[in-house]
Amino acid sequence: MGGGALGLIACVVALCLLSVKGRPATFQQDFRIAWADSHVKEIEGGRAIQLILDQSSGCGFASKYQYLFGHVSMKIKLVPGDSAGTVTAFYMNSDTDTIRDELDFEFLGNRSGQPYTVQTNVYAHGKGDREQRINLWFDPSLEFHTYSIFWNHHHIIFSVDDIPIRVYKNNEARGVPYPKFQPMGVYSTLWEADDWATRGGLEKIDWSKAPFYAYYKDFDIEGCQVPGPASCASNQNNWWEGAAYQQLSPQAARRYRWVRLNHMIYDYCTDKSRYPVTPPECVAGI
């Protein structure tokens, strides 16, 4: 999903006009402040955003539009130092209640010197509780890293610097709901969650370290914008549905195995206390 994908998307846009052109956008082109506008600061001429968390409020922003399938990414620099109790989130959400679809990156703060934990989750037709957690193999507060969500009819891929960390396959044939009917917006938030975020809530936020800052840039959305063409639901003409994107490449599969073997610290599929009967999508393989 690098240079080759960008070339394909240019062709698709020119011929079909079904997609948003893939390009790093300024914040105001594609996004709006969702809450606490005093805590969201545009920097670098609108090409980057600073989110602020203090005792008065967290904050968040959201895309102006919703999308049905595609690829979204952002470069994020997370809260440095003692970030215990904070959560920085980047996610897609259908903005519906009882039948919510949602694809989550949640970056769980830590005590200084400990690894940053990333939790991913998938909600489909209102059913979530599919958490996986990995410890990042670098310090994500020192510089920007790219976090992306790829979504088509075959699978959902969460990636860090183009390395897959989570693959959720479409297992509708086995009776497992898959998010394919509801468009989703793109969101990001910085907020306080010290009742659960760090070591299950054992590590509380240290407000003497506030304010806490997270930074975003290179907002990139390549997706079928809704409302838009009726063909969004099938999307067969868009690059993300192409044969090359229906499974991981051999190199991506090797990287994915490396992450799961060396950095995964929690997988709901193997949590027998929560799921005495293994969820069907886990039996089928994720």
From TrEMBL:
UniProt-annotated location(s): Secreted, Cell wall; Secreted, Extracellular space, Apoplast
Superkingdom, natural source: Eukaryota
Spans traversing the lipid bilayer: none
InterPro entries on file: Beta-glucanase-like, Beta-glucanase/XTH, ConA-like_dom_sf, GH16_AS, XET_C, XTH
Glycosylated residues (UniProt): N110
Mod. after translation: Contains at least one intrachain disulfide bond essential for its enzymatic activity.
Pfam families: Glyco_hydro_16 (PF00722), XET_C (PF06955)
Primary location group: secreted
EC number: 2.4.1.207
Name of this protein: Xyloglucan endotransglucosylase/hydrolase
Organism this protein belongs to: Perilla frutescens var. hirtella (Perilla citriodora)
Lineage: Eukaryota, Viridiplantae, Streptophyta, Embryophyta, Tracheophyta
